[in-house]
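Holo prediction — guanosine-5'-monophosphate.
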Amino acid sequence: MSRRRLVYEGKAKILYEGPEPGTLIQYFKDDATAFNAQKKGTISGKGVLNNRISEHIFTLLGTIGIPTHFIRRLNMREQLIRQVEIVPIEVVVRNVAAGTLSTRLGIEEGTQLPRTIIEYYYKDDALNDPMIADEHIAAFGWATREEMDDIADMAIRVNDFLCGLFAGIGIRLVDFKLEFGRLWENDFARIILADEISPDGCRLWDMTTNEKLDKDRFRRDLGGEAEAYQEVARRLGLLKEGEPNAVLDMAEHRQKRGK
Ligand code: 5GP
């Protein structure tokens, strides 16, 4: 690991140079931060679980035709991804009022929204990721109108798919954050889904008890964050029964099922 070139270190992940041009290795850390890194900690085993959960979701999204940066999982904490130019916008999709939407607009947490809402935030730690409008994105050239159309279309498709996926395992998808990147092919850039989809960037509530199964357990000092992430992985079918910390290897899984 020490011989690899570090390309970027974020709060929860590290990017290393990949084995081939145009690829990177995404390493998932156990580090957790909240409120623009004012609160710091670790969630034991989070990196392993997020690597596996994100692999599972990105693979499923690929099968419904959403282009993503994911190539394959390499080991417990690493996945091989396509190198993209990250669009400096966090795309938040909301189905139920929670978090900053509830605070900003005074809508009680848990209120079903009359329709899905997409919000954009400018990715800038120094500015605390301010909320922005389409007009800012166009005016400052952070993405073209065509790119934003693709991003909004994909965000809605991802939301529809994930709402169903999570509903099937008794989880309400309250809201989540997506990031997109430009994949350059000669002089042409295509927008693809990047980053990760995991309990770090989603609000996931148990459908019957409303228990939080996501990073809000850490943000709000509720405790049990590792167990919550494990519960999400377990319900997605990614953990071996009786081995709560083991992350299932798909090859082994197929072998067991005789396929
Ligand atoms: P809120 O704006 O209510 O804080 O967050 C909305 C949703 O987007 C939540 O699911 C939250 O996890 C996710 N989100 C927003 N900004 C970030 C971020 O900078 N990092 C992560 N991991 N998730 C974020």
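READOUT: The helical segments are 46-63, 99-105, 134-139, 145-167, 216-219, 225-235, 250-256.
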